[in-house]
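USER:
I wish I could look at a protein chain and see how it folds. I am handing you a single protein, as its sequence and its fold in token form. As I understand it, each token names a local backbone shape. I hope you can help me see how the letters and the tokens relate. The protein I mean follows directly.
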Amino acid sequence: MISTFFSHELKAFWRSKNTGKTIAVKAIMGVLILILLSYVVALGIFLGLILEKVSPNEDTTVVFCGIILVYFLFDLLMRMQLQELPTLKVQPYLHLPVKRNSVVGYLALTALLSFFNLWPIILFSPFIFTKILAASGFVAALAFFVAILALSVFNNYLAMYIKRKANLNGWIFLMAGAILTLICCGDYLWHFYSIRNLSYLFFGALLTKPYLVLLPIILGGAMFYLNFVYLKGNLYLEELGSRKASAYKSSTEIPLLGRFGHIGDLVANEIKLILRNKRPRSALIMGLFFLCYGLIFYTQKVYGESMKVFVGMFMTGIFIISYGQFMFSWQAGHFDGILVSKVNFKDFLKAKYLLFTLVSTAAFILTTPYVYFGWRVVMIHFIMYLWNLGVNTTIVLFFANRNYKRIDLSKGASFNWEGVGATQLLLSFPLLILPYVVYWPFKLFGMADAGFAALAVVAVIFILTRNFWINKLEADFNSKRFKIAEGFRNK
């Protein structure tokens, strides 16, 4: 049956009316993947030399054993964001004498056809069969190779399981991302433990006790079985539909949003749109990952406070930038319905402001642990948080009135440039430059604190005059709404 399913998928691909466009996209993706593959091959070949340069006072095998779990942790983060779920239109098969195990088995096995499963083999195999084989023998080298394969399978099906569960309840994806972020912070920020030491604890023992390879094999097999059982139990569409409907609460059942009346209802609907669709949800997830952005700069003394202005704005406002740059394209599929509905566009804009305020406030709270680097860092974060609420939100919504490209919410986020145009390029300039236009004149004269005060004052002025800007944006939208709607109709 697997060959039959594969044959049907090929026929569906070639008979689709969008085959030409799909082939062009896949060709571009193929070239990009080959370029990445060449980098990974080069990195795998020279991995031993790189480890010697990075840790000249340590044995390279010890260092190698210590980085394996670190790699698979970040591999899981990347899979959750970029790896697509394998799909098969099961409706035509449900009324035929086709065993459910065959359908589920096809979906489960095709999940292995991912380039993420190829990277660790290419990256780690040269070191295993040159260093470990020579030092510890064939059995130890084989155990390492099988363990890496098994961990790759485990990551593959764990990411698949999380994403499938998230399709029914978007909060699961956020919880998984938060847990992985806390694991990284526990090591690299708070130093509660060392992932490298845990990695060496297992793989160092694997050198002398090859039978320990059974542990990753069991983990990989167990995760495959969990996915198989989950898919089999949710194969019927009516079961998926009923569970999905019960997983979401209406806006009136969200106490915080219920206080804002009709505007709260609009925000609740927007939150559902984000959590139920891949691409907008990826903007939210990436915002969580970029909360660790400060670790790149705050741990390096070479970066001054000027860079902290950018980092603070980026971490507390990444959702405003990544999600807001495609406003109102997220509603392109039902934009005509919004135009003819009773929704007051002023309320629509206020809902956008409220959504950005809630997410940016949560982001600022999550960045407060950076107080470890000093209270001044938190002060800068707070100033740039105000700047995001006042200035950047207004800029984003201004450029939204000039974005006429639609977005298909059913498509994934990885290698998807739909909706990207000149508007997004132009948007980046004021977002990045304006804070420094206010800050640098004071900085050049040695008055950095006055520069931060000026940023705060400008931000507060924009917040206090928000109704004025909403009226201006509404008038601007009314002059362009038919052009926006026409652009969204073009598929």
Q: What stands out?
A: The two ends are 35 Å apart (CA to CA). The chain is about 75% helix and 0% strand. Confidence is low (pLDDT under 50) at residues 237-252.
